């Protein structure tokens, strides 16, 4: 255990020296999991940033608070301890609560404390020395002053709350009252249908916190939702300092915004998952919008769930946390069922508008004639024409970008596979490439089949690009706009596309799930999902939950204007109209869907009734990855702590090979969180040791509470 408290020590007779524990920016595979001890000429406040030597390198570190259980600091003979190099002056130390949040996250997600702590700080901090940092602080203060100088504008208008909104806010108030002086208020699950005015509830709750001198953190699942929400918050809180934190910022902006929050100048911080770690000394409220969204889970490095950490942080700081969604995650829904979260509901759309009528269009009734495009059925085209005549907008949702998922030779059966991955390369007609969506490998489309020379190679299946082309052919004159990752690559493209939709310059929007989320479209009366069935039969037990949420959200883009709500419609083209998921969708019945899914999960022993971790291994050959996982499994199964824990045989991941790396995974299932955590903790050092024994192994990682199975 760290003996850091036993200072001061005389180090090599160099005068009085203080021993400091430092969390260093050492990668997970270095095997350093806890803070390290160093010597400093003067005592340093916990949370101070500093530079320290490690081996031959110089790293950024954080003076870590004592008495924490961040893992064991290497006990070292004081005579052998190295001296720190420099302290970053002028910066307020990170708070002990911030350190505890990071420590919890590192322990829970099986990462090194220092690695996680430093990875969630702005990258530029690594490069700056004290004078440079002070310059940045000065600039930041100037920027803050400019923001607040614009304050003398008219007070913004607020809508009158709907009775349901008022009720929700009154209940929130009551929760705060109950918790006052005692502990953390219960986390709130704000369950509100699409267009029910959840954002207005966030705004009022934020206002409440701001008037009490507190800071507010708002998390959104995707960068492209930040500008819209930012605009709504900025409009409401004129004169307040609002900053965003996400990976789309330049390094300089990210540092400035982070400093603004950390030094307590920012009143509101709006960001994606990494913002859950924003240092906010006056934090008084956390909002997690679209809490069910899978984007809250980090998919590499420390695989944390920002939603779950938000709840933990709220508990730690004793502040309210609001998780909002029209289709809550089954984890959160179950916690509300158990009374651990307080469920507050907004059951109706603002203005009393109806939810769009859902029509399940049975594809089996379509004549099976050759050449009929299965996406653009005749009735669908009719429905689109009707909207065109009325001057209303339509939205077509197809969760697959590119022109076609694969190119195919009818002579020899060649398919456009990727030489480096176990996946097809997608045909992109716009730039005439075959592109692998996994490794990025891209080539010009061949003029003829590369194996037999046949000139007649044809696309199989359909992506958004092809759908766009077919719509233009079938509905000449219609203004069709495609919105997906390919059409919004350049900076500003998404914004300009979105404003074209809002301005009514577009008749039909075609897009991937990018367009289904959160946007407050006012002119859309028709939404169609043309090929959603795939997810019904996925081996991933969460696929139905995700599909339901996606379709509800897509449908929620229609009829947001109460006047048009009655005419608004959602169209689902399916080969399985009798499926329970679609039946629940047609009734807009999330509760029924959740109930049946939870019952299934419970009987199958799946989350939220069991706790999972996924151990993944990557190597040049599947044999190496498998032998590593098998050895890991044998070792763990022999532990008494493994009693009751199921360790499944390892299997290849769904895309087994990416960029010539073979990927295997092994599922671990435990009846309780603590049983899982105990096992993982014992396992961790052994996994490091096993990696050294398995020479060809490139990487391994543990994913706690994995989302994709
Ligand atoms: N009390 C109110 N009076 C009038 N208009 C309101 C009120 N509350 C919200 N609105 C408006 O209703 C629309 C829908 O609200 P909002 O976007 O907050 O819904 P939401 O529940 O967040 O929807 P989604 O889940 O689809 O994102 C917005 O245009 C908003 O400005
Ligand atoms: Zn590839």
Which descriptors would you attach to this protein?
709 residues; alpha/beta; GIY-YIG endonuclease; Rossmann fold; seven-stranded parallel beta sheet; six-stranded antiparallel beta sheet; 32% helix; 21% strand; globular; disordered N terminus; binds adenosine-5'-triphosphate; binds zinc ion
Structure in words:
Belongs to the helicase family. PriA subfamily. This protein is of the alpha/beta class and 709 residues long. It has 5 domains: 116 residues, PriA, 3(prime) DNA-binding domain (GIY-YIG endonuclease, 3-Layer(aba) Sandwich); 204 residues, 3-Layer(aba) Sandwich (Rossmann fold); 187 residues, 3-Layer(aba) Sandwich (Rossmann fold); 58 residues, no CATH class; 94 residues, Alpha-Beta Plaits. The protein is 32% helix and 21% strand. It has 18 helices and 29 strands. Helix 1 runs antiparallel to helix 8 and helix 3 crosses helix 7. The site of zinc ion has 7 residues, from loops.
Short précis:
The protein is of the alpha/beta class and 709 residues long.
> Strand arrangement, largest sheet?
9-10-8-11-12-7-13
Q: Calculate the mean pLDDT score and round it.
A: 90
Strand share of the residues? 15-25%
Which geometry do the CA atoms define? globular
Low-confidence stretches: 1-14
Question: What is the number of strand segments?
Answer: 29
Mind telling me the CATH superfamily name of the largest domain?
A: P-loop containing nucleotide triphosphate hydrolases
Q: What is the share of helical residues? A: 25-40%
| Overall number of structural domains | 5
CATH 2nd-level architecture of the largest domain: 3-Layer(aba) Sandwich
Computed Rg: 27 Å
